[in-house]
Every structure is written in structure tokens, then in C-alpha cells.
Amino acid sequence: MSISKKVLQVQLRYNVNESDLAEQLVVGLMAQGIEVTTLFLRGKPASGMPASKAQHSHYFECRPGDLKGFRRWLIVFRLYRFLRANGFDAVIAHRFKPISMMMWLSQLFRSMVFVGVQHGVGDYDRFFRRVEAAVLISRRWKIVGVSRAVTSYLQRTVHAFNEQNTVTINNAIDINRAKSIMLSAQDARAALALPEGRLIIGCIGRLVPVKGHATLISAFSRIAEDYPDTLVAIIGEGRTRFELEALVREHGLQQRVILLGARDDALKYVKAFDIFAMPSFSEGLPLALLEALAGGRPVIGSDIESLTAILEDCGGLQFKAGDSVDLAGKLLELIRKAPEQREAMGKAGHDYLCRMHGIEDFRFNYRNLILEMIQASGKK
User: Fold this and answer.
1) pLDDT at position 2, please?
2) What percent of the chain has pLDDT over 90?
3) In sequence order, what are the residues at sequence separation of 6 or more whose Cβ sits closer than 8 angstroms to the Cβ of residue 61?
4) Tens of pLDDT, residues 68-113
5) Alpha-carbon distance 380 to 372, whole Å?
6) What are phi and psi of 245, to 5 degrees?
7) Which domains, from first to last, does the chain contain?
8) Alpha carbon distance 94, 26 (integer Å)
9) Does the predicted TM-score (pTM) go above 0.90?
10) What CA–CA distance (Å, rounded) separates 269 from 273?
11) Dihedral sign, Cα of residue 69, residue 70, residue 74, residue 76
12) Helix axes 305-314, 148-157, angle to 10 degrees
């Protein structure tokens, strides 16, 4: 089969960096001689910011309101003209809104095949969205769940998504790259102005309610007095900063819980932490957790479906989501372990990561999926 094919990748918003998995997908396709175009519906790079590695990049520069109501159909028409002008063989759409728009357009472009990449759970809880999928999904579609948990959600929630058209391709990280840019524990603490000689529970994630930072702070408040040499450090920024700062003051933990703000390539600082916590209420497949495993850190996370699948296999600990009492107990279990025991947990997690979430397998699986779909459509 000739490999001179054209693939369009559609993303909701501009977000290009070295860890971006959409960019890893581009690298995998281009390595096979496939011509890739990346389209961002919202945003564009400012001067000095990275662009996609794809041969072609386009920016629709939509405003948030453009993707809602009647104005959404104007964007659909714009997408229609773009598809017709470029003659793509396949389209990869990330997240619900691009997937939804491509469902409608797939009715008009019957020579193309379509892949929808679903990054989290909950998007199809609405009845109309399930009906839309039932009406519009055809044999020319494959839906990819970025974790076993996401795929399970899709198949049990949406009748149109089944074992024939819905597959799992685990999110991944470039483990060698991640390890190459990670600072040593000492240098990472120095860069973050964190003290040496203290046990640090770390967390990386946007400061939004779904990330569960309030649960972590409340849990820590239950044990902080008995473990004065232990700190909590959180990398991330967002709309709940003021609420979290108030919670820290309420518990008198101003010197014990440190909100570090956003950091570029936050994975560089993973080794600053002795324990990595992910108290989220919802995740697709959490890259920050994979990055912690790459750094050989023992991990603890909430018992939501997407985390359970990882934590059970990597040797991490789990607690009931939103339950600060349960989380406090699990943190105590880790704090009381000897350093060599925590190190052994981190090694087991690293070994799991290498088996299940390597970037080469990620690229290979997407490349094969796309090429097999194009071949099955009758294109040579």
C-alpha cells in the first residue's frame, strides 16, 4: 500500500509543548511518510511560542462563543470548506466538540475515515449527545479512549460505541525525555525554594475544583501536627487559588502548605517530592501521575475509575475520592514507611510505566489504526 496519505488532526485549542501527545501522534505519522495538517479551533502561538511539528498548521482563532449555538454551525461550514479544499484521507478529532462537528461532516465526506479521541469521562452523560452519536457514527469511525477507564465509560454509556469501533490506546509519555529533563531532588527543591531535609507530599495540577486540592489540604491538616517535618507543595494555577489559600489559613498551615503557581514543564520538578498525590474527582488518563512514575516516586490517588486502573497495577495507594479522613490515613501509611520502602514503591511504578505507557507503542498504535482504516476504506 502507498503511504502518501494526508491526515488532518483537529484540536479544540492551541497547546503545543514537548509533552503534548497530539504532537507525539504527529511525529509517529510523519515517520511513516504521512502528510499531517494540524488545525486548532481556538488560539494560536504568540511570537516565540512553539508551533506544531506537522507539515501544515492552521488556526481558526474561534472565540469560546463561536462553538456554541447557531454560531457553531458557521464553524462547521468553515470546516466543510477546509475539508473539501484539502482532500484528506483521514481526520483525527480530539475531545467532544471537534468530534461532534466531525460526526456531522462525516455524512458529507464518505471517502474519508475519522478517529475521535476521547480524553475523559462524562461528555456523553447528556441524552442528546448519545442520540447524536447513534445517528451519525458509521463504519468509517473509530473512537479511541485514552485509558481503559475512558473506553469502559464510552461503551457502557453510548450504544453507538461498541467493541468493534471503540478501542483503547493508553496515553503515554516520552519516558527517556522526561527523565533527561528532570532535575535532581536537590536541584528541584532549590528551583522551587523548598527546604532540604523535609518530607514533601507533592501534587501537580490546575487549581480547579475537580483536581481535589481541598481534599488534600484537609487531609494534611489532620496529620500535620504529629509530623512537623512534612510539607505539602502544589504546582499549578487556577480559579480556586483564593479558596485554597483561605483553607490553608483556616487550618493554620501557612508555612506547611505551599502553592507554587504554574511552572513550565512541571515534570522537571517531580523529584522534589517524596510522595506524589493525585486527589482528583475526575481524570481521563492523568499524565502528571505518569510523570511521577517516570521520576520513581511512590504515588497515591483517589479511587476514581481512571486512576484505579493505574494505581492497582503500579503498586500505588488509593483512597475514597473526596474523603479527607481516608486520604489522611493513606498518607500516614506512606509517611511511616522507611525511605527505602518508598524507593521500592517508586521503582515498581517506574517498571509498570515502561511496560504500559511507552511513547513508541503509543505512536505505533495510532499509526497502525489510521493506516488500517484507510486501507479498509478501499484507498490504496
Assistant:
1) 45
2) 84
3) 42, 43, 44
4) 999 999 999 999 999 999 999 999 999 999 999 999 999 999 999 9
5) 11
6) -60, -40
7) 6-172+359-376 (3.40.50.2000), 175-356 (3.40.50.2000)
8) 13
9) no
10) 8
11) positive
12) 140
For the chain, which residues score pLDDT lower than 70?
A: 1-3, 18-19, 285, 379-380
Residue-wise DSSP of 28-84: HHHTTT-EEEEEEEE--PPTT----SSSEEEE----GGGGSHHHHHHHHHHHHHHHH
Measure the CA–CA gap between 377 and 363, rounded to whole angstroms: 21
Cα separation, 124 vs 30, in Å, equals: 32
Dist. CA 292–CA 310, nearest whole Å: 12
* Residue partners of 206: CB distance under 8 A and separation at least 6: 236, 237, 238
Rounded CA-CA distance 377/328 in Å is: 54
Q: What pLDDT is attached to residue 120? A: 83
Pairing between β-strand 90-94 and β-strand 113-118 as defined by DSSP bridges: parallel
| Predicted local confidence at residue 48, as pLDDT | 86
Map grid coordinates 501544515 to a residue: 56
Distances (CA, A) of 356 to 89, 361, 366: 30, 9, 15
